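[job 4417] fold queue: 2 targets
>>> target A
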Amino acid sequence: MNAKVNTLCRAIDDLLLCHPRKTLVVEPEVQELLRVAQLRREAGRRIGAMAASCQEERWQQLEAALQAR
């Protein structure tokens, strides 16, 4: 079990790096956890990008409303 924990920790550390290294993970449980982590990371990035876009739109609307006064 300790070897699985170490493998998972290394794989997650690699996942969090900007330029992850290739890590050989053979345990199906660890592979599935990494797949879920990758999906969550990508979803978080997309949500962040959408939020930034919406924020920019709101600032533009506010600026236009203030200039109209």
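>>> target B
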Amino acid sequence: MRVSSYADVVTPDHPLAKARADGFKRNPGTLLQDILAENGGRYEVTIDLPLKFRDDLRRLAELTSDNKLAAIADQTEMRISLEHLRHHDPASTWIVYGYRVDRDPGDGHLPGFDR
């Protein structure tokens, strides 16, 4: 198991852009320009890691004896680099960002997590 972050450009074929085109009222994601303004021009964003997510990570860390997951579970925030977005126009680029837990090949059955 591993925790990874992402920051993706919302392209016209992105599911959020399609939802907007189908009548969903919210804008898809966040304007890159707004993030840069909030962060003093730094190409990064910091997000909170909710307590439930951290508790789930702790349980996963115990089940898998994974010290890296345990260390992440002790953090309250995660910093996400946006450096790969420097070549995009901040005034017109919408992005989505967040984190996810991915399974690695070889991860066995995880009671309470497998569906």
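[job 4417] complete. Note on B: Residues 2-99 form one domain.
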